[in-house]
Amino acid sequence: MYSFLLYAASVSPSPVPGESVGDAAQAIGPGFVGFVATAAVVIVTIFLIRDMTRRIRKVRYRGEAEERQALLVEKGKDIQPDEPGDLPAR
Asked: Where are the transmembrane segments (predicted)?
């Protein structure tokens, strides 16, 4: 088994006949289409992460507001409707 691993590690592939070295270097890369596809994936990922962060923050704020409201109801504190932005307690 070890001899196979040594053989596989030591054997190098022979170059393809009929193809020059310069052409092979240009044919290997993804080119402009690959760059555009990668850039599009990065931009879409950035927008998705921003949207996800915004939605998680909104859910967290809702939870905090519900906890605050439940605490006020539990304490039996009445909210005065004459204060700006306050609604009467139910």
From this structure: 28-49
Within a domain: 56: yes
Question: What secondary structure does DSSP assign to 5-39, as a single string?
Answer: HHHHHH--PPPPTT--HHHHHHHHS-HHHHHHHHH
CB–CB of 43/49 below 8 Å? no
Q: Is residue 19 part of a domain?
A: no
Amino acid at 87: L
For residue range 21-72, list pLDDT tens digits in order.
Answer: 555 556 677 889 999 999 999 999 999 999 999 999 988 888 888 888 888 8
What is the extent of the structural domain holding 69?
Answer: 47-77
Domain count, the chain: 1
